[in-house]
Amino acid sequence: MNDLPHREVPLWKPPRIDRAAALDGFATLLDSGRLRAGYRTAELESQIGEFFDRPAVAVGSGMDALELLLEAFGVRDRRVLIPAHAFQAIPALVVRLGGHPVPVPIDPAGLAPQPGILERAGRRALVIWIHHTGIAARHARATIEALRARGATVIEDGAYLLPTDPDGPGTWGDAALLSFAPTKPMSATGGAAVITRTQEIADLIWVRRTHSGVEGRWAEGDVLLRNRSPAETDALLATAQWQQRDRTAQRLQDVQHAYTEALLKHRPELLPDGRDPQPTWGRYLVDLGDRISAQVRPALSAHGIATSVTAARPWADYPALAPYRSLRETPDLQPLLDRTLALPYHPALSPEDVQHVAERLLEALDHQEKS
Ligand SMILES: Cc1ncc(COP(=O)(O)O)c(C=O)c1O
């Protein structure tokens, strides 16, 4: 009988925040009676804004951030270039707002749009540049700057990005967003932040995130359907995560080093050329080469190891988005998605857990090779 304790290794666990400080913050908040649009939201905005030296606006979620940004820049009848493997809700949102989503090919190392996106983006194009799982592709900055120089508007989607550099990803485009959803590296109950290059766009988002007290906007012809501002409780937790993000990044880098030792030393090819570990990562992705994740996930799961695929299919493959399939197909995308696997990665992951994951993965890959 196998009497080893069964180890459960989750894919992600929110970084722990100081419990006493959070409880104290909640108590003060409840006593204040100001549960939305209060001190905590303003505090979150000023801390993020100060770090980037840009206007920052806190909103209800990453999707709210994208929606408000698309509305602020104007999306109706515009082409919106979106990485072909994006979270499906993003192109669907563009369609809802009257824009035309266009899938663009992905580079296998950075999992970002290829530099060839420059030929596709006309002056009026909007680009949603996703730093996929927090990877800042080597060519990202130069390509985003070139897109802007050609007149395109670039929104950097940093939903999974852990910001560590005030001049890094999030500051290259016209605006950026960070998410505080529980699956993201700064895990709160929800919420997001928008960082903008101009005060004008920040002001527009600031007034349009709420649906009350905006009669003046209705009088001007605007239509505001719902609240998109964060709860003060979201802002409180998000601020705690924001403040400890350097510690989170440090712990995640320790996990990266542990994977280098336990996994990459044996199979360096799991991290493709051009994708070096970065402190901004919100997930740990490996490229299984000539294996596919569906072959190894059950073996890992049998050992209590949670894994995920960050995009199962190109978004234009889904029936609702099929009308936006590109004329220029991207045949190499599905194989890339099939062989990309997210391994457990969170600040509390111990070296023993990493060793366990690495051993089981190496075993599963060896087994696949033999059979
Ligand atoms: C790339 C990307 N952008 C935006 C979002 C939406 O963020 P939120 O969950 O905060 O709405 C997600 C959600 O996972 C995402 O993966």
Q: DSSP helix count? A: 13
Spans of 5+ residues with little confidence (pLDDT < 50)?
A: none
In the CATH hierarchy, what is the class of the largest domain? Alpha Beta
Supply the helix-strand structural class: alpha/beta
- In what order do the strands lie side by side in the largest sheet? 1-7-6-5-4-2-3
User: What is the strand tally?
Assistant: 9
Percent of residues in beta strands?
5-15%
Radius of gyration, in Å, reads: 21 Å
H-E order:
HHEHEHEHEHEEEHHHHEHHEH
The ligands bound in this entry are: pyridoxal-5'-phosphate
- The dominant shape is globular
CATH-scheme architecture of the largest domain:
3-Layer(aba) Sandwich
Average predicted local confidence, pLDDT: 96
- How many distinct domains? 2
The CATH superfamily of the largest domain bears the name Type I PLP-dependent aspartate aminotransferase-like (Major domain)
Alpha-carbon distance between the two ends: 27 Å
Query: What is the helix content?
Result: 25-40%
